[in-house]
Amino acid sequence: GPALVWLRDDLRLADNPALAAAAAGGRPVTVAYVLDDAPARRPLGGACRWWLHRSLTALAADLATRGVPLVIRRGDPAEVVPALAAETGAALVTWNRRYEIAARELDATVKAELIGRGVRAESHNGHLLAEPWTVRTKAGEWFRVFTPFWKATRLLVDDAPGPIPVPERIVAAPDVPSLAIADLGLAPRAPDWSGGLAATWTPGEAGARARLAAFLDGRLVRYAAARDFPDASATSELSPHLRFGEISIRTVYEASRHHAAATGIAERTLAKFQAELGWREFSYHLLYHFPDLPRRNFQPRFDGFPWREPDPSAIAAWRHGETGYPVVDAGMRQLWTTGTMHNRVRMIVASFLVKHLLVDWRIGEDWFWDTLCDADPANNAAGWQWVAGSGADAAPYFRVFNPVLQGEKFDPDGRYVRRFVPELADLPSAVVHRPWQCDGVKPGGRGRRSYPAPIVDHAAARERALGAFSSLKAGA
Ligand code: FAD
């Protein structure tokens, strides 16, 4: 009988195990996406909704060249998916697994419902190099430390089969009604704030492949040396493509390995890049085994941390890039205009919120969730907890970044700051990260657009953060 493939965070044709299984043997296939807006399953933020709109559009076009429609529905998948299976007469429904607890519970419900109706339901691994329950310590436990986790994962991966190609033939099942992608209301209108995102990104499988090719051709060789410099264009910029599964993690892992071997890229450089893919795996490992990762401190002793009562004006200054610290403000404005932020700068702005402003990391995680195109249930929560010090294998809390020195170290000539903070564009490099030392820049200063004075003093904020942390230790 016919099959139904239910796509979620796997909007691609290549190396898509659920699609390949559904299409095997020339079985007629319905390819469906169901927009699920249930509050219980944390709805996508604004930037991701924009991305999804574009990604579905690209996927529908790719499928159309193969004569296959993309069926769009909306609602609770626990009802919509079994109903669609009945409508299409599917004897088999396939999907690739997800790892957030609410999604896992939903998928289990759908599976039970299908089986109850005599329909086969099959889940696959399309999102990770290794399933979180297969990576174990010698004692059979899950990992809380990255390095041994990644070592164990790589042993599994090196034995696993490589990526699978796009099915040669996908036979379309008879048409069923579909919403138009535009009916989902994912793209922003009035105001349409997506211009900067559209100028930065090409969502979809072809866009993902192009990013990978560009990374392998020019950037990988410089990766280990230059990845920390936000203006160096040395990283892959694959994260939103991986977030939506427009390219598979196995494809990226294998392609980087082959390319490095073929072109003689140093082992160390390749290992550095692959370790970042490893942090993604590790974040999912944590999310799977500690489902509250996006909400609760991984280290419970942080539950008593004396966060300050949220100060709306300080939080607004952080969100909008008006803190008076140029590298922080450049990062927050890059995020707002392009839907991404360089990793080094994510660490700096997150540290600033959590330590300089003593704001609970969950407030920052929420803002990133709404504004990042790669906003990811595992990576975002793990990233914030790592910076806050509350996470697994996290940065120690007492290491407080100095935003001026970080700026001077990783953006030495200020090019990154000048790109996103035009008020500072004509400042000499020597003061671009400390504009208060330059006479022309004053709040409301003449001639040049005003740039705010620092909203907190670094030395005082650092002392305050360390004091908060030591109160925690004393109480724990
Ligand atoms: P590359 O350096 O080219 O790395 C390749 C891939 O590895 C990335 O695309 C990503 O999938 C993965 N990766 C790299 N670094 C990390 C990391 N530290 N943790 C987990 N995976 C990683 N990444 C997200 O994908 N989504 C998020 O929501 C997210 N939120 C973050 C929040 C904070 C506070 C911090 C400090 C980091 C966050 N990261 C997040 C991790 C990291 O910043 C981004 O993955 C990276 O900047 C993406 O750029 P790239 O694709 O060029 O990375």
From TrEMBL:
Superkingdom of the source species: Bacteria
PROSITE patterns on file: DNA_PHOTOLYASES_1_1 (PS00394), DNA_PHOTOLYASES_1_2 (PS00691), PHR_CRY_ALPHA_BETA (PS51645)
One Pfam family here: DNA_photolyase
Co-factor remark: Binds 1 FAD per subunit.
GO molecular function annotations of the record: deoxyribodipyrimidine photo-lyase activity; DNA binding; FAD binding
Domain (Photolyase/cryptochrome alpha/beta): residue spans on this chain: 1-129
Obligatory cofactor(s): (6R)-5,10-methylene-5,6,7,8-tetrahydrofolate; FAD
GO terms of biological process kind: photoreactive repair; response to light stimulus
Site residues, Electron transfer via tryptophanyl radical: 307, 361, 384
Keywords: Chromophore, FAD, Flavoprotein, Lyase
UniProt catalytic activity: cyclobutadipyrimidine (in DNA) = 2 pyrimidine residues (in DNA)
Residues annotated to bind FAD: 223, 235-239, 273, 374-376
EC number: 4.1.99.3
Family of this protein: Belongs to the DNA photolyase family.
UniProt name for this protein: Deoxyribodipyrimidine photo-lyase
Lineage, highest ranks first: Bacteria, Pseudomonadati, Pseudomonadota, Alphaproteobacteria, Hyphomicrobiales
